[in-house]
From TrEMBL:
Family the UniProt entry places it in: Belongs to the esterase D family.
Family matches, as Gene3D superfamilies: alpha/beta hydrolase
Gene name of this polypeptide: fghA
One GO CC annotation: cytosol
Protein's UniProt keywords contain Hydrolase: yes
Superkingdom, taxonomy of origin: Bacteria
Keywords: Hydrolase, Serine esterase
Reactions it catalyzes: S-formylglutathione + H2O = formate + glutathione + H(+)
Lineage, highest ranks first: Bacteria, Pseudomonadati, Pseudomonadota, Alphaproteobacteria, Rhodobacterales
Protein's name according to its UniProt entry: S-formylglutathione hydrolase
GO molecular function: carboxylic ester hydrolase activity; S-formylglutathione hydrolase activity
Active-site residues, Swiss-Prot/TrEMBL: S146, D222, H254
Function: Serine hydrolase involved in the detoxification of formaldehyde.
InterPro entries: AB_hydrolase_fold, Esterase-like, S-formylglutathione_hydrol
Length: 276
């Protein structure tokens, strides 16, 4: 693992690191914020999965999470959203290929050699983090924005017991019924739609749900509402009696101005679950 930068922030350290990934067969970069409390021992870890076009950097510099994480003594990890580099497949559409890994393991050409973000985020990166940094593996939460909200919800529901809490900002809620989903799942997973079901937060909520607190925020002025389909997840939560809070935030769009506005609430929400 290589240290690319380390900067003092809110009494802790905001680092950026790169490493050779065996899951993605390329070098991967991630951001990790360690609060001051990490100097005295392992601290809880909150994952932040980012959306389309993002690298590890967007949320790290625009979501304003470090201040609240520092106060609560929580570490934050900001993984990249796809494999990258020469020899890694790509597409002119910003919603497919590099910057758009959708947190799945691709099985189809030309994506399958590198696009294994599910394994990267759920297996390889956690192993690396818990070996290298003072992080409490038994106290984790997960959140994310847009495509990253989809990743956070599907991963939380697929690993019962791993995450104490899950939250999402404007998540892609029902990708099997959306242009942000159908195109990518066809490309990465192929045309057999039965393989898509494991990656749809609405279908997973109906099937098994999440055994812990859930918080979802969605702006009512989001320019991508038709692709995000919040109504599908809200309905599934009600139908499945999933505990949780789904908030429609009046006038907010899809940007990091929306994310940063509600970040304090999300960090507090996870901090409360970590203390329970
Ligand atoms: N570039 C796309 C929008 C992509 C987009 O809004 N991406 C969101 C996540 S889905 C994001 O976080 N963008 C990076 C940023 O705002 O820093 C477009 O013009 O339609």
């Amino acid at each position: 693992m290589k240290t690319l930068s380390e900067n003092r922030a809110f009494g802790g350290v905001q680092g950026v690191y790169s490493h050779r990934s065996s899951a993605c067969a390329c070098d991967m970069t991630f951001g990790l914020f360690l609060p001051a409390q990490a100097e005295d021992g392992p601290v809880p870890l909150l994952w932040f999965l980012s959306g389309l076009t993002c690298t590890h950097e967007n949320a790290m510099v625009k979501a304003g999470a470090q201040r609240w994480a520092a106060e609560a003594g929580i570490a934050l990890v900001f993984p990249d959203t796809s494999p990258r580099g020469e020899g890694v497949a790509n597409d002119p559409d910003f919603a497919l290929g590099q910057g758009a890994g959708f947190y799945v393991n691709a099985t189809q050409a030309p994506w399958s050699p590198h696009f294994r973000m599910w394994d990267y985020v759920t297996d390889e990166l956690p192993r690396l983090l818990f070996n290298a940094f003072p992080l409490a593996e038994d106290v984790q939460g997960i959140t994310g924005h847009s495509m990253g909200g989809h990743g956070a919800l599907t991963i939380a529901m697929s690993f019962p017991g791993r995450f104490r809490s899950v939250s999402a900002f404007a998540p892609i809620c029902n990708p099997v019924a959306s242009d942000w989903g159908r195109l990518q799942f066809s490309a990465y997973l192929g045309n057999d739609e039965t393989t898509w079901v494991a990656h749809d937060a609405t279908l997973l909520t109906k099937k098994r749900g999440f055994d812990g607190p859930m918080l979802v925020d969605q702006g009512t002025a989001d320019q991508f509402l038709d692709k995000l389909r919040p109504e599908a997840l809200a309905e599934a939560m009600a139908a499945a009696r999933q505990g949780g809070t789904f908030r429609m935030q009046k006038g907010y769009d899809h940007s990091y101005f929306f994310v940063s506005t509600f970040m304090e609430d999300h960090v507090s929400f996870h901090a409360e679950a970590f203390m329970a």
